[in-house]
Each structure stands twice: as C-alpha cells, then as structure tokens.
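Trying the structure run again after the queue cleared.
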Amino acid sequence: MTTAKEIMHPGAECVTGEQTLADAARIMRERDVGALPICDERQKLLGILTDRDIVLKCVAEGRDPAIVRCLELAVGRPMVIEEDEETDLVLRIMEQHRVRRLPVINHPEHELVGMISEADIARRLPQDRLAEFVTAVTAPAAP
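Done. Tokens:
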C-alpha cells in the first residue's frame, strides 16, 4: 500500500509565527501555493495559514497584513499524518475533517517533512474514488 511519504510534496516551506501575513502572502505567491505551515525554530508545526485565512481573518476585518503576525491566525491544532501511514488513512482524515491540505510529520521527532494536497491525491486516485474524495472534502459543514 502507498504511504503518506510516497504521495506527499516533500520539503514544505514554513513561515514563523513572528512573520507577518504580508510576508506569508509573498512566499505563497513566489511558491505558487495556497497554504503554508507555521513552524517554530525546530520545524515543529504550530498551525497552517491559508490564503483564505489572510483574506477573511485579516483583510476583510480591516486589519493590516503588514502588521498582523502569522501566529495570530494559528488557532487550534492542525490535523497531521505520520509519514509511514497508509494512503487510506490520509483520505479518511482529509474527508472526515474536510481539509484540503495535510501536513506530514516524521516519528518520533514530530517534525514537518512535507504536505499532502488535493493535487497530490488527484495524481494517485482512480477517477471514481477521486470524485468521492472531492465531494467529501468540499461538502458544506453540518449546521
């Protein structure tokens, strides 16, 4: 069976909690990505920052992305998967929690080693399973 490590995009670039949202937005543009992990100095995952977070939780509220720090938007615990877990578990976690990106950590250090995105999944799944996955991940939240 395929593992998370085999389908992940290795070497995910992190932002620090102290960097601004403007810094993160520039990195996202340069890397052509829609999300960045927020990590401490030891590559321990603190949260995930998305382009949507920047727009909805900063810009739309009239806050200045050149001042707001990434750590301010790192709320809750992000879902993660260990690199040796099977793809079926990756899909279950992403579907159950309706997440489009899943950080991959190593064990026992729990350091970030990569990210799995919908695009990574799409390259591996048969069409019928892919349709099921996308439907589950994009379903509206239950009231």
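The two ends are 36 Å apart (CA to CA). Worth checking whether this holds up in the mutant runs.
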